[in-house]
Specification:
The chain is an alpha+beta fold and 147 residues long. It folds into 2 domains: 7-115; 117-147, no CATH class. The protein is built from 4 helices and 5 strands, in the order αββββαβαα. Strands 1-2-3-4-5 form a 5-stranded antiparallel sheet, with helices on one face. Strand 2 (27-32) and strand 3 (38-44) form a beta hairpin. The radius of gyration is 18 Å and the shape is globular. The N and C termini lie far apart (39 Å).
Amino acid sequence: MRKSLTPELETKRVQLPGYEIGSGPNGAFVVQGPTGATLRIIADDGTDPTSAAFGFEHVSVSVSHRDPNWREMAFVKRLFWENEEAVYQLHPPESQWVNNHPHVLHLWRHVSRDIPLPPMIAIGFQEDGTYANRDEAYRAAVKRGLL
């Protein structure tokens, strides 16, 4: 997690009831996302032993009327972490699900352990870049004999 934030992001820091204003990456922020939606963000660098997120860098992202989308989550990831740091969204066992907000998603990273990542080929073909649409992706999979 970034130790310091951009000056522009610092101007988006807000005070939330029940939260300290924070410093560095810790605190609450309200920013305009890449799709025009207002993103409400709470961030914790995981270093405070009194924090519920101790040991994990954590950022929650919410939009008032829907869940944040991929572009918005990727945008927030870049605000708080370096490009080459891996973070994850977690799907815990259903018995441990908690949903205190109807439209919030979370990003996590352990403070001292790297996240194991699957092989790149299991994600896609890096040399192909990003396909323009599903049809193009489907045609590429057929061409490779995967479908």
